[in-house]
Design a protein that fits this description.
By secondary structure, the chain is mainly alpha-helical. It has 2 domains: 2-64, no CATH class; 81-129, no CATH class. It contains 8 helices and no strands. The protein has helices at residues 2-7, 17-22, 25-32, 36-47, 53-64, 81-94, 98-107, 110-129. Helix 4 runs antiparallel to helix 5 (53-64). It starts with a helix and ends with a helix.
Amino acid sequence: MFNVFKNVMSKSHQFTEEELKKFNSFMFCRWLSGTFDTLKIAQCINLNYNIPDELQLKLAQYALNGRKRFIPFPKALKMNEEYENNLKYISEYYNVSLDKAKMYLELMNPEEFEYIKYQINTKRQALKNGN
């Protein structure tokens, strides 16, 4: 499957039936979303999901215009202790589940998170002091 993705970089490559059978549109768009330059191509393919696989590949092939580039494959975030603690802060502040807190954390900038952390710590300190 990844060889099919690499062949998109070549402007003159003709896709075979075997390559088209290996093609997965979702994984292809996920791979294209790895860089800001190719994100718009992935969005275009997602909006036009009903076009045949071969045309999706050709669209990306012509949009990339034969330019060789490195596109990293997005990987899932690893849950470390700090990340889990951050989720707990957000979950407590907004009173949401940890799954919802993950979505909130992805959308937040560091300043917003630091404000939430400060508010929760202040609240905990006040409760600890009996206020």
